[in-house]
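User: Fold this one for me? It's Centrosomal protein of 41 kDa-like.
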Amino acid sequence: MEKKSSIFKPLGGKDILDKKVKKSGKYDNIKSSLDTGKTIRDVEIMSDQLVAKKKNEKFKRIKCSTLAKLLQEQTYDESVYNLGNQNENIYNFDQRSQVQSSVSGLRNDHDDTHSVYTVQTGVSQVSAVTYATEQLGINQNTKFLLLDLRDPEEYSLWRIRESINFPAPNIARDKTIPELFRFRNQPDKLIIIYLGDERSGTQYAALFFEKGYENIYLLSGGCESFLEEFPTLCEGRAVPTPKRQMEENKKEAKMELTKKKHENCVTGQIQRRY
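Assistant: Here's what I get for Centrosomal protein of 41 kDa-like.
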């Protein structure tokens, strides 16, 4: 008689020696006392942020919060300027309609309007100058040029407000624009550049400096980080939703679903009673 093959597997499994032992994180914080140089493990620990920030960089960086203050300051100045023009038109209309008013009274009204305009502008300018901006040499007279170094397709989808598209390959080709020429190495003028992330912009900031632009500033974190912190200062036909907002929307949707389930459960219990 033929022997029947055993259907039972050996104890412990066939591939027990091939299984990998799970690594314990108990001793991860313990380092070797011997320094034998750089290893692969050290390279993996280095983040993109540390690679991007080198001590020998000649260009400067500007924070997202500082750029946001500059954009808000420019928007406020434009709104105050438009308000001043509207007040002037209203004032001229009142001057034509009120024929019996005295000339001295009109002068007093004009002086009061001008003084309020000056005070509002002064307060706005002072509020925009913080310790961080003073370290960069930014004051109330500072003007900036914001350049988007991404491709035109990406720029058309979304961008930071007041930015001008200037693709990065144009730097090596020595192509320029009139705005860039006017802002080059001028006092109280900044040339701010950005890409999607900070690391990809370091080489182009260094290239700008090599081309003779000493007032070049790289936006820390790139436009992606700026979008997360200041989404209202971004514009375009397809502005991405910030990750923080997406998480909040998911939480709200989950809470709404839980609330509906609870209401349905209570309604079902009431119907059973009656």
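One thing worth pointing out: The longest helix spans residues 64-97.
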